Amino acid sequence: MLEKTTRINYLFDFYQELLTPKQRNYMEMYYLEDYSLGEISELLEVSRQAVYDNIRRTEKMLESYESKLKLYTKFQKRYDILVKMDREAPEASVFQTLINQLKELD
Fold first, then answer.
1. What is the model's pTM?
2. Residue 95: helix, strand or coil by DSSP?
């Protein structure tokens, strides 16, 4: 469950601008602010089922965006390469400066 939550949080970070304000609000409340479905339904005065359906539908949309655009996949690959370079690059090298600059971009 933690893996799924982490993945959805990353996908949300990358693709939230492609969502409607309502979808963003539901996802922020559920994933970022850790509200329960019941709490969201009370606050927004909708049924718990409506909240659940909206969140699941939005998760599928985020996965669909990722399958097409692959922003998260590319991010992960860049991160893995940076970690490997960081381990293998000597401390005082020019590469270390470049690695640090790349890290700051993400």
1. 0.81
2. helix
Positive or negative, the Cα torsion across 31, 52, 67, 23? negative
pLDDT, tens digit, 9 for 90 and up, residues 40-99: 999 999 999 999 999 999 999 999 999 999 999 999 988 888 888 777 766 656 677 777
* Residue 89 neighbours by CB distance under 10 Å: 15
How many angstroms separate the CA atoms of 62 and 14, rounded? 9
Is the CB of residue 62 less than 8 Å from the CB of residue 53? no
How is 23-78 classified by DSSP, letter by letter?
A: HHHHHIIIIIS---HHHHHHHHTS-HHHHHHHHHHHHHHHHHHHHHH-HHHHHHHH
> Among 78, 81, 62, 85, which residue's Cα sits nearest to residue 9?
62
Q: Are 11 and 64 in contact (CB under 8 A)?
A: no
* Ramachandran region, residue 88 (left: φ > 0; alpha: ψ -120 to 50; beta: rest): alpha
